[in-house]
Amino acid sequence: MVIFMNNATNAKLWDAETPLGKPVHKLDEFAYFGNDLGAVYAEDKTVFTFWSPEALNVTVRLFTKGSDKEEGAKFIADLPMSKTFENVWRAEYAGDHKNEYYTYVIDFKDKRVETVDIYAKAAGVNGERGMIVDLKSTDPEGWNDDKHIFVETPTDAIVWEVHVKDFSHSPSSGITAEHRGKYLAFTEHSTLYGEGIVPTCVDYLKNLGVTHVQITPFYDFGSVNEAAQDDSYNWGYDPKNYNVPEGSYSTNPFDGNVRITECKQMIQALHDAGIGVIMDVVYNHTYQAQGSFFDRCVPGYYYRYHKDGSWSNGSGCSNDTASEHLMYRKFMIDSVLYWAKEYHIDGFRFDLMGLHDAQTMRLIRKACDEEFGKDNIILYGEGWHMGTACANGTEMANQGAIRSMPGVGAFNDNIRDAIKGSVFGAYDKGFVQCGACAERIKSGIAGETGSWAGKASQCVNYASCHDNYALYDKLILSERGGTGYAERFDSLVSMTKLSAAIVLLSQGIPFFLAGEELCRTKFGDENSYCSSAEVNQIDWENTGHYADLILYYQGLIRLRKKLSALRGANKISDNAKLNFVNSAMPCVSYTVDFKDNDTEGHVFVALNPCDYDVRLNLADTGLPKDTKWIAVVNKHSAGTAPLMAISELALIESKSALVLIDEKAYKAIFKR
Fold first, then answer.
1. In terms of Cα–Cα distance, which of 89, 610, 654, 261 is closest to 247?
2. CA–CA distances in Å: residue 344 to residues 5, 84, 150, 189
3. Which of 324, 351, 357, 662 is catalytic?
4. Full domain range(s) for residue 592
5. Per residue in 546-586, pLDDT tens?
6. Which end of the chain has fewer CB atoms surrounding its CB within 10 Å, N or C?
7. Which tens digit of pLDDT belongs to each residue from 275-297?
8. Is 351 in the active site?
C-alpha cells in the first residue's frame, strides 16, 4: 500500500490502483496527480512544479532570451527547487517575470543534465528553452468570444486535412507574401486567384462547405530550423515541445508570445468561418529517443524498451512512448485538455494510435466529456495493429479495440484501399478503376459496423490523406503508368467524382486530403514528408482547371448535410434501414428507408465503376412500386437541386454515381 498525494484534495490513500489506472512501472508509485506541473505564472510570482522522483537536486536556470545568439541574451540566475512530500520539485520565483526563459538542471546519481520542461507552454527559438508566459496576454482581440465548433454527432463532421505551409505557400493562394506558409494566412479574406473571381484559402473552404479542418502537426517540432525562416519543409511528425505551437509558422519565432497569439488567430479565423479545428497529435514517439526532454527529465521511464534494454521502435521513428505508464498517460490527458481549453481545439487526430493502450484513450475520452460534454470533442486516430514492447495482455488502441473505446474513432483503411487500390502497391487498382473490391466498398458504406466499428461514428472514411500518394497521383500511376501528373484527364476526374460519392454517401465521418477535390498532385511523390514546399503546396490555379470537380464535391457535401439518414449514428439514421441491392450488379447499389419527422422517405444510391452505362429497372430494387423519383446526383452534377424526374428505368452512366430521392420526401426535406 502506497500513500499518494494530490495537491487539490490533500492526502489520499490508494491501494494498487490510482485515478489513472494500475501502476505498471516502479516509478508509477510516485505518481503526482496535481494540475500545476510546469511554470504557472501570476503577476506576483511564478511557481515551477516538476516531477522527477529519482533526481537528487533540481535547479531552475533563468535567461533573458530563448538562445544565447540573440541580442541582449544573458544568464539571469539559478533558482534552487525543493522536493515536496507530494513527490515533486517546486520553486517560487517572486515578482513579475513573464517572458523570461528557463530550463531545468537536474542532478542524478550518475550524471547532470539540462532540459526543457516537458510541461512548458511557451518556448524560444527552436524550442531549446521554455518561457514564462502570461497566457492571457497572448489572446488576440475577441478571443473571449471565440467558441468551439461542436457538432451533434461526429458523423455530422466533414473533414479537410491540410498542412499549414501547404495551405498558402503558393503565390496562387492570393495570400500576402509575408503570411504565406504561416498561421496568419488563415486570417486573410477576399483572397482570390486569377481575374479576381475565384476565392481561395478560408473563403474557398466556406464555399466548399467542409465543417472541420484537420491540421497536420502544429505543436513545436524538431525537424525545421525556426531561426532560418526559409522554405525548409517537414510534415512535423517529430514532436519536441508538445504544448507549444511550432515557431516556423509564426512571423517571429524568437518571441515565445508571437507563435501563441498567431496560432490562436488561425483557430479564431476558422471558427469565425464556421469551421472547427482538429489537431493532429503525435504522442506515440518523440523527435529524439535518447537525449529527448522526456528522457532527460526521468531517464528510462517515459519510453518502452525491450528486455535487452534496447528501445522499442514500433513507430519506426527510433522510439515508442509508454502511454501505460501513469505519468505519460497523465501527460497525454493534460496536453489534450490544455489544447482544447487554451486554444479552443475542437478535435484530435492521434497519429499511430494503435501504439497507445486503450485505457489511455478511454481516459482521454472521459476527461474531454467531463470538460466539454459527451462526444463534443471529436477523437479519432490511426488504429493500425502495430508491434511494440508492451507488457503481455495490454489492450492496445487499434481497430480490434474500437468497440471497447466508445467515442473514439479510427481511420478506415478498408474503404481507402477498396476505392482505388492498396497504398502498398502503386499500380494496384480498386473499385473506381475496374470495379474490384465491391464487397469491401459495401462494408465501408455501412460504416464498418459489421466488422470492427461499434458505431458508424467510430469509422473515418477516406480515399486519400497526407500519407502515400495523393488520389490523383494514384489514379495516374494505376491508369496511365505515372505520366502526365500536371495534365487533366477527364476519365480520372470521373473516377475522382465516384470516389467522392463513395466517401460522402457512406455512414461514418467523411475525410479527404486538402486539394483532392481539385486533383491535387505531388508529382508522384509517395512520401513527401520532407520534400520541397513546391511539391507539397496546394496549387490554387487548379480552382480554375477543375471547377466542375469542386462543384461536385460541394454538391455532395450540401446533400450530405441535408440527408442525415445517410450519415449514420444519429437519430434519423439509427432508425433507418440500409439494404444493398444485388439486382443492380455490377454496380454497388443500396437503398435507405427512413423517417424524417412526419415524412417517410426512400433514397436509392448506385455506384457504377464500369466503362459502360448500366440501365436498371427500379422495380427490381425492392423499393415501393409506382414511386416517382428525383435525381440529385449523376455523373455531371451533385447537390440538392432536382436534375430530372425518374419513374421506372434509371440510367447509371459509366464511372459515376446516381442518387435518387422519392418525390414526396424530396419536397418535404428540401421544401421545394
1. 261
2. 31, 33, 11, 21
3. 351
4. 574-670
5. 999 999 999 999 999 999 999 999 989 998 999 999 888 89
6. N
7. 999 999 999 999 999 999 999 99
8. yes
Task: Check the CA dihedral 270-169-501-455 and report its sign.
Answer: negative
Q: Which of 382, 473, 662, 663 is catalytic?
A: 382
Flag whether 40 is in a domain.
Answer: yes
Among 107, 138, 169, identify where a domain stops.
Answer: 138
Question: What does pTM read for this prediction?
Answer: 0.96
Domain membership flag for residue 613: yes
| Rounded-to-integer distance, Cα 118 and Cα 220, Å | 12
Residue 10: which pLDDT band, with cuts at 50, 70 and 90? Answer: very low
Among candidate residues 138, 164, 179, the one where a domain is terminated: 138
Top-confidence residue, 220 or 230:
220
Residue 444 belongs to some domain of the structure? no
Q: Residues with Cβ < 8 Å from 26, sequence gap 6 or more? A: none
What is the secondary structure of 114-132 as a DSSP string?
EE--TT-S-B-GGGSSEE-
| Greatest CA separation for the chain | 86
Contact 120, 39 (CB under 8 A): yes
Burial annotation 147-156 (CB, 10 A radius, 16+ → b, else e)? ebbbbebbbb
CB 25 within 8 Å of CB 390: no
3-class secondary-structure state, position 479:
helix
Domain count, the chain: 2
**Residue 553 belongs to a domain:** no
| Residue 647 burial (C-beta neighbours within 10 Å; 0-12, 13-18, 19+) | exposed
Q: Quote the strand ranges of 553-628, DSSP E.
A: 577-580, 588-596, 599-608, 614-617
Q: What are phi and psi of 131, to 5 degrees?
A: -135, 140
Q: What are φ and ψ of residue 603, in 5° steps?
A: -120, 140
- Return the CATH number at 107: 2.60.40.10
Asked whether the beta carbons of 262 and 250 are under 8 A apart, the reply is yes
pLDDT surpasses 50 at 6 = no
